[in-house]
Write a structure and sequence with these properties.
28% of the residues lie in helices and 34% in strands. With 161 residues, the protein is an alpha+beta fold. It has a single domain, classed as Thiol Ester Dehydrase, Chain A, CATH 3.10.129. Strands 1-2-4-5-6-3 form a six-stranded antiparallel sheet, with helices on one face. A hairpin with a 5-residue loop joins strand 5 (130-139) and strand 6. The termini are far apart. Keywords: Hydrolase. Its EC number is 3.1.2.20. It is an enzyme of class 3 (hydrolase).
Length: 161
C-alpha cells in the first residue's frame, strides 16, 4: 500500500520531468508567428514520388523537429503523417472537402537528428463517403520501420438549401 508521502513524491518527480523538457520555457520569437509550423513542414519534405493514391517523401530530421532526447518529436511525426495522409486522400478525392474522422499513430522506434527518413503514404480504401490512408516512416538507409499511421477521412456533407 502506498504511503501518504508517495503521491506527493510522484507529483514532484513529474513536475521536475516536465521542467527538464522545457515546460516553462518561453516560445522562441521565430516560432511565435502565424503558420510557422506549416512553413517548417513544407520546407522539410521533399516529394520523391506522387501518384494517384500514393505519395513518397523524404526528409532529414533537423534539430527544429527534435525533442530533448535528440530524436524526432512525436508531434512532428503526427504532423507529417497528417499532411501526407490528407495529400493521399485528396489525390483520389479531388476538390471535395474532407475532414479527419480518426487517426492513430504507432511509435515503434526513434529517428535521430540528421537521419534521413522516407515517408510513404497510400490510400487503403476509397468509398463514396470514406477514405482510409496509411503512412509509414522508415529509415531511408536501412528500411527500418519507425512509425506508422492510419487515418480515416470523411467526405464533408453538402449543405441542403
Amino acid at each position: 500500500m502506498a504511503t501518504p508521502s508517495e503521491p506527493q513524491a510522484y507529483a514532484t518527480n513529474t513536475k521536475a520531468f516536465l521542467e527538464r523538457l522545457g515546460l516553462s520555457n518561453p516560445i522562441p520569437d521565430a516560432a511565435d508567428r502565424l503558420r510557422f509550423h506549416s512553413d517548417l513542414l513544407r520546407s522539410l519534405l521533399k516529394a520523391d514520388l506522387i501518384e494517384t493514391g500514393r505519395i513518397i517523401c523524404s526528409f532529414v530530421v533537423n534539430p527544429a523537429l527534435a525533442n530533448p532526447y535528440n530524436t524526432m518529436h512525436g508531434g512532428a511525426v503526427a504532423s507529417v503523417a497528417d499532411v501526407l495522409a490528407m495529400a493521399c486522400a485528396k489525390s483520389v478525392a479531388g476538390d471535395i472537402e474532407l475532414f479527419t474522422g480518426e487517426t492513430a499513430t504507432s511509435y515503434l522506434s526513434a529517428a535521430r537528428v540528421n537521419e534521413e527518413v522516407e515517408v510513404e503514404g497510400r490510400v487503403l480504401r476509397k468509398g463514396r463517403r470514406v477514405i482510409v490512408t496509411e503512412v509509414d516512416f522508415r529509415i531511408k538507409k536501412t528500411g527500418r520501420l519507425l512509425f506508422t499511421n492510419r487515418s480515416t477521412f470523411y467526405v464533408m456533407p453538402l449543405a441542403k438549401l
